[in-house]
Protein backbone atom coordinates (compact mmCIF):
# COMPACT_ATOMS: atom_id res chain seq x y z
CA UNK A 1 0.00 0.00 0.00
CA UNK A 2 1.26 3.46 -0.86
CA UNK A 3 1.77 6.02 1.83
CA UNK A 4 -1.07 8.50 1.98
CA UNK A 5 -2.05 11.63 3.89
CA UNK A 6 -4.88 14.06 4.49
CA UNK A 7 -5.47 17.37 6.24
CA UNK A 8 -8.70 18.71 7.72
CA UNK A 9 -9.42 22.13 9.19
CA UNK A 10 -12.50 22.63 11.33
CA UNK A 11 -13.77 25.36 13.65
CA UNK A 12 -13.65 24.43 17.34
CA UNK A 13 -17.37 23.75 17.62
CA UNK A 14 -18.49 20.74 19.65
CA UNK A 15 -20.56 19.35 16.76
CA UNK A 16 -17.34 19.00 14.72
CA UNK A 17 -15.85 16.50 17.17
CA UNK A 18 -18.00 13.64 15.81
CA UNK A 19 -17.27 14.74 12.25
CA UNK A 20 -13.50 14.71 12.84
CA UNK A 21 -13.74 11.26 14.40
CA UNK A 22 -15.61 9.85 11.39
CA UNK A 23 -13.26 11.49 8.87
CA UNK A 24 -10.16 10.02 10.54
CA UNK A 25 -11.83 6.60 10.88
CA UNK A 26 -12.76 6.69 7.17
CA UNK A 27 -9.19 7.57 6.25
CA UNK A 28 -7.86 4.78 8.51
CA UNK A 29 -10.13 2.24 6.82
CA UNK A 30 -7.51 1.94 4.01
CA UNK A 31 -5.46 -0.05 6.52
CA UNK A 32 -8.17 -2.71 6.74
CA UNK A 33 -8.53 -2.22 10.51
CA UNK A 34 -10.43 -4.40 12.92
CA UNK A 35 -13.55 -2.97 14.55
CA UNK A 36 -11.50 -2.59 17.76
CA UNK A 37 -8.68 -0.70 16.02
CA UNK A 38 -11.18 1.69 14.43
CA UNK A 39 -12.90 2.23 17.77
CA UNK A 40 -9.49 3.01 19.36
CA UNK A 41 -8.74 5.62 16.69
CA UNK A 42 -12.19 7.21 17.00
CA UNK A 43 -11.90 7.42 20.79
CA UNK A 44 -8.42 8.96 20.71
CA UNK A 45 -9.41 11.52 18.05
CA UNK A 46 -12.52 12.44 20.05
CA UNK A 47 -10.42 13.11 23.13
CA UNK A 48 -7.82 15.17 21.26
CA UNK A 49 -10.43 17.29 19.44
CA UNK A 50 -12.51 17.73 22.61
CA UNK A 51 -9.39 18.92 24.45
CA UNK A 52 -8.73 21.50 21.73
CA UNK A 53 -12.33 22.73 21.88
CA UNK A 54 -12.71 22.84 25.66
CA UNK A 55 -9.21 23.67 26.86
CA UNK A 56 -7.41 25.13 23.84
CA UNK A 57 -10.04 27.61 22.76
CA UNK A 58 -12.32 27.61 25.81
CA UNK A 59 -15.39 29.56 24.75
CA UNK A 60 -13.84 31.07 21.64
CA UNK A 61 -13.96 29.67 18.13
CA UNK A 62 -10.61 28.83 16.59
CA UNK A 63 -9.28 26.45 13.99
CA UNK A 64 -8.39 22.84 14.76
CA UNK A 65 -6.16 21.19 12.17
CA UNK A 66 -6.14 17.41 11.89
CA UNK A 67 -3.51 15.76 9.76
CA UNK A 68 -3.27 12.04 9.14
CA UNK A 69 -0.50 10.13 7.48
CA UNK A 70 -0.37 6.46 6.62
CA UNK A 71 3.11 4.97 6.49
CA UNK A 72 2.99 1.24 5.72
CA UNK A 73 0.78 -0.16 8.54
CA UNK A 74 1.00 2.91 10.78
CA UNK A 75 -1.46 5.77 11.10
CA UNK A 76 -0.04 9.03 12.41
CA UNK A 77 -2.61 11.58 13.61
CA UNK A 78 -1.75 15.17 14.46
CA UNK A 79 -4.36 17.35 16.13
CA UNK A 80 -3.28 20.96 16.43
CA UNK A 81 -4.89 24.06 17.87
CA UNK A 82 -3.67 27.66 18.12
CA UNK A 83 -5.32 28.07 21.49
CA UNK A 84 -4.02 29.06 24.89
CA UNK A 85 -1.55 26.21 25.30
CA UNK A 86 -0.83 23.92 28.23
CA UNK A 87 1.17 25.31 31.14
CA UNK A 88 2.41 21.99 32.53
CA UNK A 89 2.18 19.11 30.05
CA UNK A 90 3.35 16.47 32.56
CA UNK A 91 0.66 17.54 35.01
CA UNK A 92 -1.96 17.73 32.26
CA UNK A 93 -1.13 14.16 31.25
CA UNK A 94 -1.66 12.78 34.76
CA UNK A 95 -4.81 10.66 35.11
CA UNK A 96 -7.74 12.55 36.64
CA UNK A 97 -6.03 15.96 36.38
CA UNK A 98 -8.37 18.58 34.93
CA UNK A 99 -7.89 22.30 34.58
CA UNK A 100 -11.67 22.78 34.43
CA UNK A 101 -13.21 20.84 37.34
CA UNK A 102 -16.37 22.96 37.15
CA UNK A 103 -17.19 21.22 33.86
CA UNK A 104 -17.11 17.79 35.51
CA UNK A 105 -14.49 16.59 33.06
CA UNK A 106 -12.89 13.27 33.95
CA UNK A 107 -9.33 14.46 33.43
CA UNK A 108 -8.69 11.23 31.54
CA UNK A 109 -8.24 12.63 28.00
CA UNK A 110 -4.50 12.04 27.62
CA UNK A 111 -4.72 8.76 29.54
CA UNK A 112 -7.38 7.55 27.10
CA UNK A 113 -5.21 8.62 24.14
CA UNK A 114 -2.21 6.78 25.60
CA UNK A 115 -4.29 3.66 26.24
CA UNK A 116 -5.75 3.43 22.75
CA UNK A 117 -2.75 4.53 20.69
CA UNK A 118 0.74 3.06 20.37
CA UNK A 119 2.49 6.41 20.78
CA UNK A 120 1.49 9.85 22.09
CA UNK A 121 3.50 13.06 22.10
CA UNK A 122 2.21 16.44 23.25
CA UNK A 123 3.89 19.75 22.46
CA UNK A 124 2.48 23.01 23.73
CA UNK A 125 3.41 26.63 24.13
CA UNK A 126 1.48 29.14 26.23
CA UNK A 127 -0.43 31.52 23.97
CA UNK A 128 0.58 29.61 20.84
CA UNK A 129 -1.36 26.35 21.06
CA UNK A 130 -0.95 22.61 21.37
CA UNK A 131 0.06 19.79 19.03
CA UNK A 132 -0.96 16.23 19.88
CA UNK A 133 0.77 13.51 17.83
CA UNK A 134 -0.61 10.00 18.03
CA UNK A 135 0.46 6.84 16.26
CA UNK A 136 -1.57 3.66 15.83
CA UNK A 137 0.04 0.53 14.44
CA UNK A 138 -2.40 -1.72 12.60
CA UNK A 139 -1.95 -5.48 12.70
CA UNK A 140 -3.68 -5.94 9.38
CA UNK A 141 -2.96 -8.93 7.17
CA UNK A 142 -2.28 -6.69 4.16
CA UNK A 143 0.75 -5.16 5.91
CA UNK A 144 2.40 -8.58 5.99
CA UNK A 145 2.63 -8.82 9.79
From TrEMBL:
**Residue ranges of every copy of the Histidine kinase/HSP90-like ATPase domain listed in the record:** 36-140
Membrane spanning stretches: none
Gene3D superfamilies, sorted: Histidine kinase-like ATPase, C-terminal domain
Which terms under GO biological process does the entry name? negative regulation of sporulation resulting in formation of a cellular spore; sporulation resulting in formation of a cellular spore
Provide an example Pfam family for this protein.
HATPase_c_2
Q: Sorted alphabetically, which keywords does the UniProt record give?
A: ATP-binding, Kinase, Nucleotide-binding, Serine/threonine-protein kinase, Sporulation, Transferase
InterPro entries documented for this protein? Anti-sigma-factor_SerPK (IPR050267), Anti-sigma_F (IPR010194), HATPase_C_sf (IPR036890), HATPase_dom (IPR003594)
The GO terms describing molecular function are: ATP binding; protein serine/threonine kinase activity; sigma factor antagonist activity
Q: Which HAMAP family match?
A: Anti_sigma_F
Q: Which NCBIfam families match?
A: spIIAB
PANTHER family xrefs: ANTI-SIGMA-F FACTOR RSBW, ANTI-SIGMA-F FACTOR RSBW-RELATED
> What is the name of this protein?
Histidine kinase/HSP90-like ATPase domain-containing protein
UniProt source species? Caloranaerobacter azorensis H53214
